[in-house]
Design goal:
This protein is of the alpha/beta class. It folds into two domains: about 80 residues, Leucine Dehydrogenase, chain A, domain 1 (Rossmann fold, 3-Layer(aba) Sandwich), CATH 3.40.50.10860; about 130 residues, 3-Layer(aba) Sandwich (Rossmann fold), CATH 3.40.50.720. The chain is about 40% helix and about 15% strand. The chain contains nine helices and eleven strands. Strands 1-11-8-7-5-6 form a six-stranded parallel β-sheet. Helix 1 packs parallel to helix 9 and helix 6 crosses helix 7. The termini are far apart. The protein binds nicotinamide-adenine-dinucleotide (NAD).
C-alpha cells in the first residue's frame, strides 16, 4: 500500500487564491490593505529564508509587507521600542517577530509586548488563553495549517484518536487544543477528537502511537516515526523539519507510506500551509482592527 499524499503546496494555492480574493474585497470596500511587519534580529540563515518566503507569500496575495532587520547586538529595549512603534502604526495589521531571538533577549517579554490584535502568530498569552477557552481570535499558524490540511482533505477528526508527538508552545500544545475541543460557531475548526500528547517523558510511546487514527509528529528528530509505530490505514502528518546531509527531511520515516492511508510529505506538506495560515491571520487582523475603529 502506498499512502495518499497530503499535498500542502497544492492546498496552499487554493487557500491563497481565497485569501487574495478577500484582500481585494477588503481594499474595494474599505481601502484597507492588510500589512505584515516582519522583524528579523541577527543573521540566522534559516530565519532569513523563512522571512523571505513569508514576505514573498504576502506579495502573492496582495498583502503589504515590511522587513525590519536588526543586528544581533540589538538590545531588548531597542526591540521592545520597535514593537511599540509597530503597535502604533495603522498600516501594520500583523507583527511577526521571527524566532529564535539572540540569547540575551527574553522571547516571552517580546511576545507580551505585541498588541494581541496584531499577534498573527498567536503566541501572545491572551490569544493562547482565548484558544484554550474555546473562543480563539487567531489560531497558531502551524497547527492551523495541519487542521486545514485534514479538514479540506475530508479527513474527519470527530471521535477519532489523535496522537500528537511533541508538546511545544508553537506546535504540539496548541494542536491538542484545536483538535480536542468541541466545534461551535466561535470555533468551527475545533476537532472533537480524543487527543493524546506524547513527549520525551512518555512511557510506552510506541504503543500509544499505534492507537492513533491520526498521528501528528512534531518533535524535530529525523525519521523518528517508523512503520511499526503506525496503525494500518492511519493518517500521518509530518510537521518536522530536519536538515540531514544538507537535505530537509521530516520526523516520519518514508517507509511509513507502506502502512498509512494518508501521509503529508516534507518538504511540501505542513511548511507551505504554515505560511498560508499566516496570510490568513494577517487578513483577519486587518478586518478585526478595522471593526475596532468603526
Ligand atoms: P521543540 O523542540 O520546541 O519541541 C519538541 C517537542 O518534541 C518537545 O515537546 C519534546 O518533548 C518532544 N520530543 C523531542 N524528542 C523526542 C523524543 N525522542 N521522543 C518523544 N518526544 C520528543 O520543537 P517545535 O518547535 O515544536 O518543532 C518540532 C519540529 O517541527 C521541528 O522539526 C521544527 O523544525 C518543526 N516545525 C515545523 C514547522 C512547519 O511549518 N512545518 C513549524 C514549526 C516547527
Amino acid at each position: 500500500m502506498a499512502a495518499k499524499r497530503l499535498d500542502g503546496q497544492q492546498l496552499s494555492q487554493t487557500i491563497r487564491g481565497e485569501i487574495a480574493n478577500a484582500v481585494k474585497q477588503l481594499a474595494h470596500s474599505s481601502g484597507i490593505i492588510p500589512g505584515l511587519a516582519a522583524v528579523l534580529v541577527g543573521d540566522n540563515p534559516a530565519s532569513e529564508v523563512y522571512v523571505r518566503n513569508k514576505r514573498r507569500a504576502c506579495e502573492s496575495v496582495g498583502i503589504a509587507s515590511w522587513l525590519h532587520r536588526l543586528p544581533a547586538s540589538t538590545t531588548q529595549a531597542e526591540l521592545l521600542n520597535l514593537i511599540e512603534q509597530l503597535n502604533q502604526t495603522p498600516e501594520v495589521s500583523g507583527i511577526l517577530v521571527q524566532l529564535p531571538l539572540p540569547k540575551h533577549i527574553d522571547e516571552a517579554k517580546v511576545i507580551l509586548a505585541i498588541n494581541p490584535l496584531k499577534d498573527v502568530d498567536a503566541f501572545h498569552p491572551e490569544n493562547l488563553g482565548l484558544l484554550t477557552a474555546g473562543h480563539p481570535r487567531y489560531l497558531p499558524c502551524t497547527p492551523f495549517g495541519v487542521q486545514q490540511m485534514l479538514s479540506r482533505s475530508g479527513i474527519s477528526t470527530a471521535g477519532a484518536n489523535v496522537v500528537i508527538l511533541g508538546r511545544s508552545n508553537i506546535v504540539g500544545k496548541p494542536m491538542s487544543l484545536i483538535l480536542m475541543q468541541k466545534p461551535s460557531t466561535h470555533f468551527p475548526e475545533a476537532g472533537d477528537a480524543t487527543v493524546t500528547v506524547v513527549h520525551r517523558g512518555t512511557r510506552s510511546l510506541e504503543k500509544v502511537c499505534q492507537s492513533a487514527d491520526v498521528l501528528i509528529a512534531a518533535i524535530g528528530v529525523a525519521h523518528f516515526v517508523k512503520p511499526e509505530m503506525v496503525r494500518l490505514g492511519a493518517t500521518v502528518i509530518d510537521v518536522g523539519i530536519n536538515s540531514v546531509g544538507g537535505k530537509i527531511v521530516g520526523d516520519v520515516d518514508p517507509s511509513v507510506a507502506e502502512v498509512a492511508e494518508w501521509l503529508s510529505p516534507v518538504p511540501g506538506g505542513v511548511g507551505p500551509m504554515t505560511i498560508t495560515m499566516l496570510l490568513y491571520n494577517t487578513l483577519r487582523a486587518a478586518q478585526l482592527l478595522r471593526s475596532q475603529t468603526e
